[in-house]
Protein backbone atom coordinates (compact mmCIF):
# COMPACT_ATOMS: atom_id res chain seq x y z
CA UNK A 1 0.00 0.00 0.00
CA UNK A 2 1.08 3.57 -0.59
CA UNK A 3 2.67 5.42 2.29
CA UNK A 4 0.02 8.00 3.21
CA UNK A 5 2.78 10.21 4.66
CA UNK A 6 4.06 10.98 1.16
CA UNK A 7 2.56 14.24 -0.14
CA UNK A 8 0.47 13.47 -3.23
CA UNK A 9 2.50 15.81 -5.41
CA UNK A 10 5.69 13.95 -4.44
CA UNK A 11 4.34 10.49 -5.25
CA UNK A 12 5.71 8.39 -8.06
CA UNK A 13 3.17 7.43 -10.72
CA UNK A 14 2.83 3.95 -9.17
CA UNK A 15 2.23 5.45 -5.74
CA UNK A 16 -0.25 7.91 -7.20
CA UNK A 17 -2.10 5.10 -8.94
CA UNK A 18 -2.37 3.21 -5.65
CA UNK A 19 -3.61 6.34 -3.87
CA UNK A 20 -6.21 7.09 -6.53
CA UNK A 21 -7.53 3.52 -6.68
CA UNK A 22 -9.76 3.59 -3.59
CA UNK A 23 -11.03 7.11 -4.41
CA UNK A 24 -12.27 6.24 -7.88
CA UNK A 25 -15.44 4.24 -7.11
CA UNK A 26 -17.12 7.02 -5.13
CA UNK A 27 -16.74 9.25 -8.18
CA UNK A 28 -17.62 6.53 -10.69
CA UNK A 29 -20.94 5.95 -8.93
CA UNK A 30 -22.04 9.38 -10.21
CA UNK A 31 -19.92 10.06 -13.29
CA UNK A 32 -19.36 6.50 -14.49
CA UNK A 33 -15.85 5.17 -15.10
CA UNK A 34 -15.00 8.30 -17.02
CA UNK A 35 -12.42 11.07 -17.32
CA UNK A 36 -14.70 13.18 -15.12
CA UNK A 37 -14.48 10.57 -12.35
CA UNK A 38 -10.69 10.40 -12.64
CA UNK A 39 -10.42 14.19 -12.52
CA UNK A 40 -12.67 14.37 -9.46
CA UNK A 41 -10.59 11.72 -7.67
CA UNK A 42 -7.42 13.61 -8.54
CA UNK A 43 -8.78 16.86 -7.15
CA UNK A 44 -9.94 15.08 -3.98
CA UNK A 45 -6.40 13.77 -3.54
CA UNK A 46 -4.87 17.14 -4.34
CA UNK A 47 -3.09 16.46 -7.62
CA UNK A 48 -3.68 17.91 -11.09
CA UNK A 49 -5.96 15.75 -13.29
CA UNK A 50 -3.22 15.73 -15.93
CA UNK A 51 -0.88 13.90 -13.56
CA UNK A 52 -3.62 11.46 -12.58
CA UNK A 53 -4.03 10.59 -16.25
CA UNK A 54 -0.32 9.76 -16.42
CA UNK A 55 -0.79 7.32 -13.52
CA UNK A 56 -3.98 5.81 -14.94
CA UNK A 57 -3.72 6.33 -18.70
CA UNK A 58 -5.93 3.50 -19.95
CA UNK A 59 -9.40 4.93 -19.48
CA UNK A 60 -12.25 3.07 -17.79
CA UNK A 61 -10.59 -0.36 -17.76
CA UNK A 62 -7.41 1.04 -16.22
CA UNK A 63 -9.44 2.87 -13.58
CA UNK A 64 -11.35 -0.29 -12.69
CA UNK A 65 -8.11 -2.23 -12.49
CA UNK A 66 -6.64 0.39 -10.14
CA UNK A 67 -9.68 0.10 -7.89
CA UNK A 68 -9.55 -3.70 -7.86
CA UNK A 69 -5.86 -3.51 -6.92
CA UNK A 70 -6.80 -1.33 -3.96
CA UNK A 71 -9.35 -3.95 -2.90
CA UNK A 72 -6.58 -6.58 -2.99
CA UNK A 73 -4.44 -4.38 -0.76
CA UNK A 74 -7.23 -3.59 1.70
CA UNK A 75 -8.22 -7.25 1.88
CA UNK A 76 -4.77 -8.11 3.27
CA UNK A 77 -5.05 -5.35 5.89
CA UNK A 78 -8.55 -6.40 6.98
CA UNK A 79 -7.58 -10.07 7.24
CA UNK A 80 -4.01 -10.36 8.54
CA UNK A 81 -2.41 -13.80 8.28
CA UNK A 82 -2.46 -14.35 12.05
CA UNK A 83 -6.25 -13.98 12.08
CA UNK A 84 -6.70 -16.39 9.19
CA UNK A 85 -4.31 -18.92 10.71
CA UNK A 86 -6.88 -19.84 13.36
CA UNK A 87 -9.51 -20.68 10.74
CA UNK A 88 -10.19 -23.82 8.74
CA UNK A 89 -9.74 -23.46 5.00
CA UNK A 90 -13.47 -23.18 4.31
CA UNK A 91 -13.75 -20.42 6.92
CA UNK A 92 -10.76 -18.61 5.42
CA UNK A 93 -12.18 -18.55 1.91
CA UNK A 94 -15.60 -17.44 3.17
CA UNK A 95 -14.06 -14.68 5.29
CA UNK A 96 -11.90 -13.48 2.40
CA UNK A 97 -14.77 -13.28 -0.09
CA UNK A 98 -16.96 -11.51 2.46
CA UNK A 99 -14.16 -9.07 3.22
CA UNK A 100 -13.94 -8.12 -0.45
CA UNK A 101 -17.69 -7.62 -0.61
CA UNK A 102 -17.65 -5.49 2.53
CA UNK A 103 -14.94 -3.32 1.01
CA UNK A 104 -17.16 -2.87 -2.06
CA UNK A 105 -20.40 -2.34 -0.11
CA UNK A 106 -20.27 1.50 -0.13
CA UNK A 107 -19.63 1.37 -3.88
CA UNK A 108 -22.22 -1.06 -5.23
CA UNK A 109 -23.27 1.28 -8.02
CA UNK A 110 -19.67 1.74 -9.13
CA UNK A 111 -19.19 -2.03 -9.02
CA UNK A 112 -22.36 -2.55 -11.06
CA UNK A 113 -21.04 -0.14 -13.70
CA UNK A 114 -17.62 -1.80 -13.65
CA UNK A 115 -19.13 -5.25 -14.21
CA UNK A 116 -21.21 -3.90 -17.11
CA UNK A 117 -18.05 -2.52 -18.75
CA UNK A 118 -16.07 -5.71 -18.18
CA UNK A 119 -18.91 -7.77 -19.66
CA UNK A 120 -18.56 -6.08 -23.05
CA UNK A 121 -17.23 -8.56 -25.63
CA UNK A 122 -14.11 -6.50 -26.28
CA UNK A 123 -13.28 -6.52 -22.57
CA UNK A 124 -13.79 -10.22 -21.84
CA UNK A 125 -10.04 -11.04 -21.96
CA UNK A 126 -9.34 -8.28 -19.44
CA UNK A 127 -12.26 -9.37 -17.27
CA UNK A 128 -10.93 -12.92 -17.29
CA UNK A 129 -7.47 -11.74 -16.30
CA UNK A 130 -8.82 -9.58 -13.46
CA UNK A 131 -11.04 -12.40 -12.20
CA UNK A 132 -8.09 -14.79 -12.22
CA UNK A 133 -5.94 -12.27 -10.37
CA UNK A 134 -8.60 -11.80 -7.68
CA UNK A 135 -8.97 -15.55 -7.20
CA UNK A 136 -5.20 -15.99 -7.03
CA UNK A 137 -4.90 -13.18 -4.45
CA UNK A 138 -7.62 -14.79 -2.34
CA UNK A 139 -6.08 -18.27 -2.44
CA UNK A 140 -2.63 -16.90 -1.63
CA UNK A 141 -4.01 -14.98 1.33
CA UNK A 142 -5.70 -18.18 2.46
CA UNK A 143 -2.27 -19.83 2.50
CA UNK A 144 -2.64 -22.00 -0.58
CA UNK A 145 0.61 -23.35 -2.02
CA UNK A 146 -0.84 -25.73 -4.61
CA UNK A 147 1.07 -26.20 -7.85
CA UNK A 148 0.30 -27.79 -11.18
CA UNK A 149 -3.26 -28.73 -12.06
CA UNK A 150 -4.57 -28.07 -8.54
CA UNK A 151 -3.28 -24.50 -8.67
CA UNK A 152 -5.37 -23.77 -11.75
CA UNK A 153 -8.54 -25.64 -10.78
CA UNK A 154 -8.67 -23.92 -7.40
CA UNK A 155 -8.45 -20.47 -8.95
CA UNK A 156 -10.88 -21.21 -11.75
CA UNK A 157 -13.42 -22.59 -9.28
CA UNK A 158 -13.07 -19.74 -6.78
CA UNK A 159 -13.19 -17.18 -9.58
CA UNK A 160 -16.55 -18.57 -10.69
CA UNK A 161 -17.82 -18.55 -7.09
CA UNK A 162 -16.66 -14.98 -6.57
CA UNK A 163 -18.25 -13.65 -9.75
CA UNK A 164 -21.57 -15.38 -9.15
CA UNK A 165 -21.59 -14.08 -5.58
CA UNK A 166 -20.93 -10.54 -6.78
CA UNK A 167 -23.95 -10.77 -9.10
CA UNK A 168 -26.17 -11.81 -6.17
CA UNK A 169 -24.62 -9.12 -3.96
CA UNK A 170 -25.39 -6.34 -6.45
CA UNK A 171 -29.14 -6.97 -6.21
CA UNK A 172 -29.31 -8.11 -2.59
CA UNK A 173 -31.65 -5.98 -0.47
CA UNK A 174 -31.85 -8.41 2.46
CA UNK A 175 -30.80 -7.29 5.92
CA UNK A 176 -27.05 -7.59 6.39
CA UNK A 177 -26.82 -9.10 2.89
CA UNK A 178 -28.15 -12.35 4.35
CA UNK A 179 -29.10 -13.69 0.91
CA UNK A 180 -25.58 -13.12 -0.39
CA UNK A 181 -24.05 -14.83 2.63
CA UNK A 182 -26.35 -17.84 2.24
CA UNK A 183 -25.56 -18.07 -1.46
CA UNK A 184 -21.83 -17.88 -0.75
CA UNK A 185 -22.09 -20.60 1.90
CA UNK A 186 -23.72 -22.92 -0.63
CA UNK A 187 -21.14 -22.20 -3.29
CA UNK A 188 -18.19 -22.59 -0.90
CA UNK A 189 -19.63 -25.94 0.16
CA UNK A 190 -19.51 -26.89 -3.51
CA UNK A 191 -15.85 -25.86 -3.71
CA UNK A 192 -15.02 -28.02 -0.72
CA UNK A 193 -16.80 -31.01 -2.25
CA UNK A 194 -14.79 -30.43 -5.42
CA UNK A 195 -11.53 -30.47 -3.47
CA UNK A 196 -12.58 -33.55 -1.51
CA UNK A 197 -13.45 -35.38 -4.71
CA UNK A 198 -10.06 -34.60 -6.22
CA UNK A 199 -8.34 -35.99 -3.12
CA UNK A 200 -10.38 -39.20 -3.35
CA UNK A 201 -9.54 -39.93 -6.97
CA UNK A 202 -6.86 -42.61 -7.18
CA UNK A 203 -4.35 -42.42 -10.05
CA UNK A 204 -4.37 -45.32 -12.48
CA UNK A 205 -0.76 -46.51 -12.87
CA UNK A 206 -1.52 -47.68 -16.42
CA UNK A 207 -2.80 -44.31 -17.62
CA UNK A 208 -1.51 -40.76 -17.53
CA UNK A 209 -3.64 -38.20 -15.74
CA UNK A 210 -6.05 -36.41 -18.07
CA UNK A 211 -7.60 -33.12 -16.95
CA UNK A 212 -10.40 -33.54 -19.52
CA UNK A 213 -11.20 -37.04 -18.26
CA UNK A 214 -11.12 -35.83 -14.66
CA UNK A 215 -13.55 -32.98 -15.33
CA UNK A 216 -15.81 -35.32 -17.27
CA UNK A 217 -15.98 -37.70 -14.32
CA UNK A 218 -16.69 -34.79 -11.99
CA UNK A 219 -19.54 -33.58 -14.21
CA UNK A 220 -21.29 -36.94 -14.19
CA UNK A 221 -20.71 -37.43 -10.45
CA UNK A 222 -22.42 -34.17 -9.53
CA UNK A 223 -25.55 -34.54 -11.64
From TrEMBL:
Residue ranges of every copy of the COQ9 C-terminal domain listed in the record: 124-195
Nucleus listed as a keyword: no
Tagged with keyword Transit peptide: yes
Residue spans crossing the bilayer: none
Protein family (similarity comment): Belongs to the COQ9 family.
Keywords annotated in UniProt: Lipid-binding, Transit peptide, Ubiquinone biosynthesis
Gene3D superfamilies cross-referenced by the UniProt entry: Tetracycline Repressor, domain 2
Known role: Membrane-associated protein that warps the membrane surface to access and bind aromatic isoprenes with high specificity, including ubiquinone (CoQ) isoprene intermediates and presents them directly to COQ7, therefore facilitating the COQ7-mediated hydroxylase step. Participates in the biosynthesis of coenzyme Q, also named ubiquinone, an essential lipid-soluble electron transporter for aerobic cellular respiration.
Superkingdom in the source lineage: Bacteria
Pathway: Cofactor biosynthesis; ubiquinone biosynthesis
NCBIfam families assigned to the protein according to its UniProt record, in alphabetical order: diverge_rpsU
Organism: Sphingomonas natans
Any Pfam family the entry gives: COQ9
Protein name: COQ9 family protein
Amino acid sequence: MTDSAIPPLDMTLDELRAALGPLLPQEAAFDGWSEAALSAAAMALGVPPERARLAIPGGAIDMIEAWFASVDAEMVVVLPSERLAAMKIRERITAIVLARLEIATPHREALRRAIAILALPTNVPTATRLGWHAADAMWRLAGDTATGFAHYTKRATLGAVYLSTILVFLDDESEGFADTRAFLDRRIAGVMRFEKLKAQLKPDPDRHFSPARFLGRLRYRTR
